[in-house]
Amino acid sequence: MPCALVWFRHDLRLDDNPALRAALDGGFTPVPVHVHAPEEEGEWAPGGASRAWLHRSLTALDRDLRARGSRLVLRHGPTMPALQALLAETGAEAVFWNRKYEPATQPRDAAIKRQLRGQGVQAESSNGTLLFEPWELATQQGGPYEVFTPFWRSALLQWRAPVEWGAPARLPEMDEDIASLPVDALGLKPSPAWDAGFWDVWRPGEAGARDALEVFIDGALRGYRSERDRTDRTGTSHLSPHLHFGEIAPWRIAAGLERARTAANSADIDGYVRELGWREFGYHLLHHFPHTATQDLNPRFERFDWARPQPAMLEAWQRGRTGVPIVDAGLRELWATGYMHNRARMIVASYLTKHLRYHWLHGARWFWDTLVDADLASNTLGWQWTAGTGADAAPYFRVFNPVTQARKFDPDGRYIARWVPELAALPVPLRFAPWQQPDVLALAAPKYPRSPIVDLAAGRDAALAAYRKTGGD
């Protein structure tokens, strides 16, 4: 039986894997391979938290392959020479992979496909990541969408989710002489191991993704629409890192939810599927406006008066030492777990871009390095939405008041008490704005900042003044 390379990237699963299926359907013995080439990701090479997750996800994928009689071959990049070497070693006649959509990887992959085909090697790519490829939906004028609601309306009208596909119980055996690096040789694990706390929360790999979906359906799905913004409750799916690394397909999630649909949870399911739609929208925007990974989509903000970051203040934000408890709680959750509740993400992003008036890229890059679900499309969409500079964005003059947000979405102060434990002894009303009673704060939490690093009212006024200079109303 002839061989084919199956090039794994952000599709680290066996079920619902179009590239693996194409190889098997073509009558090939799959040679699963992952090429580590972060230098080919441009300025958005994977951050520390992503690399830590990838180490464990690759280990899980290799284990799943071995359970089926195969294994994962690991190589260092550059990618094309690594694939060429494997083609020579295995005599493979084809290479199959699932597409990536980032600005740096799309042209790289296209060049690889052209070169392979020019050599007479069958080279095929598939969609293993999205419900809709970024170019499949267009406005009536034929252009890209820049507003979510009409985008999603069009998507729902054209919804044709793939049929779920289960990988076979056994895979054809590979030649044992094909060499592979150990996963440790890729240098993915952080040193020192600042990620140690992550793995009390997360289980990377396809089995972990399946379990997370089941837990969500059995638990947080009930009341999802009303509870998802509560930072003090487990009201979200926690599927985002599994989606980012392709450990589960979005259509398998949608299908699982559909099987669980009842009259009681129907609205919650629709609400969650809509969130999958926002993920699709982010990829749509990044494909059509690749510059937005580093630049504002709204050209008005090219002349916006962003403040010059002060290193001490930026570090205080990063480390959860701003003196604003809900902001600090979110950033400490991020550091401890590699994750931050979605509502908290909006609050901390608003604080950085509005109250501190720092360019959103400073926050986007911190998230990129510390989030286990750091996804370029979603990260860019989220930061530009909050900053007011992107597609379908919140108006710049919408400045989240973090105290009001905390009272609404953490009404008992439990999220704050968990992640800023020095404030747990304070009465609940004081946890939201402890600077209002400095004597009580000094007694209960002598090491916590006595006041926010920027006055909330002054920061908001400065942001609005800067916005008016750009021509905003």
Would you kindly provide a written description of the structure presented here, covering whatever features stand out?
- With 473 residues, the protein is mainly alpha-helical.
- It has three domains: 3-128, Rossmann fold (3-Layer(aba) Sandwich), CATH 3.40.50.620; 130-163 and 206-288, Alpha Horseshoe (Serine Threonine Protein Phosphatase 5, Tetratricopeptide repeat), CATH 1.25.40.80; 299-469, DNA Cyclobutane Dipyrimidine Photolyase, subunit A, domain 3 (Orthogonal Bundle), CATH 1.10.579.
- It is built from 20 helices and five strands.
- The protein has helices at 18-25, 48-66, 79-90, 105-118, 148-157, 206-218, 224-227, 240-244, 250-259, 266-288, 311-318, 325-337, 342-355, 360-370, 376-387, 402-409, 414-419, 428-431, 438-444, 456-469, and strands at 3-7, 29-36, 73-76, 94-98, 122-126.
- A five-stranded parallel beta sheet has the order 3-2-1-4-5, with helices on both faces.
- It starts with a strand and ends with a helix.
- The model has no long low-confidence stretch (mean pLDDT 96).
Report the uncertain regions: none
Percentage of β-strand residues? 5-15%
CATH names the topology of the largest domain as DNA Cyclobutane Dipyrimidine Photolyase, subunit A, domain 3
* Morphology: globular
Q: What is the structural class?
A: mainly alpha
| Residues in helices, as a percent range | 40-55%
Main sheet properties? 5 strands, parallel
CATH superfamily label of the largest domain: DNA Cyclobutane Dipyrimidine Photolyase, subunit A, domain 3
**Which oligomeric form is depicted?**
single chain
Output the radius of gyration.
23 Å
Total strand segments:
5
